[in-house]
Fold this protein.
Amino acid sequence: MKKLIFFIILIFFPLKNVFSKTLDDLYKKLDDLNYSKEIVGILSEEDREILFADGLNMQLIINSLNEEINKINSDIIKKEEEIEKIQKEVNNMLILLQTSSGENTSLNYILDSSSYSELIYRWMIIKQLVEYNNNLLNTLNSSLSQLNDKKAILDKKIEKLNNQRNNYLEIENIIRASGESSANDLTTTLDEDIASLVEEISIYENMGCDRYLDLSFCLNMKNIYNLNYPLMKGCVSSDYEISKNNIHMGIDLACNAEGNNVYAAGYGVVASVIRKSTCGGNIVFIYHLVNNKKYTTIYGHLLDIKVNVGETVDNNSVIGTVGGDSTSYKNGGYDRCTNGAHLHFAITEGYHTSDFSGYTFNPRYIFDFPPVLNGYFIK
């Protein structure tokens, strides 16, 4: 009977999860968080365990879909490069075979032969060029067909991913309202998220943002072409991983003592600041527009924070300093999700703060980090 409670909640009290783009979306997200706090009061311990297990299974599916989508995107890029190369060859062939002044250049070339053997030779050359051109066109058409097939598959995968994200985020709000989290990850509480969203909304309203205007326009986001390492140098101590044994939706960057500077990964706007979270410590969220796509970078376990919500930053801006040692619970601090000095660095698709965990992906998709505890990166 208790197992039915979860399904009753989703059927009769569906949560509205939105891909935050406008001030209105932030208001809706705020309503979702407050509503989740109300729901958690009617759940038993068994219900919470079921939700936690369901949430993990959905995260595994989301991670698998992210991997598939990344592979398809990579294949599409290679196929587009291949098509561009073939198109250039086709254009070159068309130039060779083009007609000029109403006369057939190829025919003139053949008839201008000084002997019969030369005529045959020139005719063979034209024939081979035509055949080669036709083969190029056939290859091009085949490649275009394959590209369209891959894009159709990609669209279906993305649709499935978004559905899974919606389902997961509905569950996750309730899980976090229950106080559940992974000891190896970065997790904010609903109360922290609510306070952060209230601050973010207030700042955007004071800036004069229209409730239904895309935040990129309101914040005057500048498009950039790449993101940079958030530390001057360092190593990787723990990778991004989502498995039944471990949930770690970011990459841990170590080989830095506490107090070393942490930089914004690129031009953007500080979207949220969480201070002294019990699972993440001091956390900063920054919105970016990279190649006209929205991203959020997340910096956790900071010793201190040097920026404010609404502030514009770039890759030379110090947003905080490395923490995770003196701030750790084992050393008498407040952060129970760290055991030593490091930066937890995460990245999401879109602009996300309170619902970031459903949109994270492996930072290695974008950054060329060295293997775990094997080599260093330099900003």
Summary: The longest helix spans residues 116-177. The helical segments are 3-12, 23-40, 45-97, 105-111, 116-177, 190-206, 215-218. The chain is about 45% helix and 15% strand.
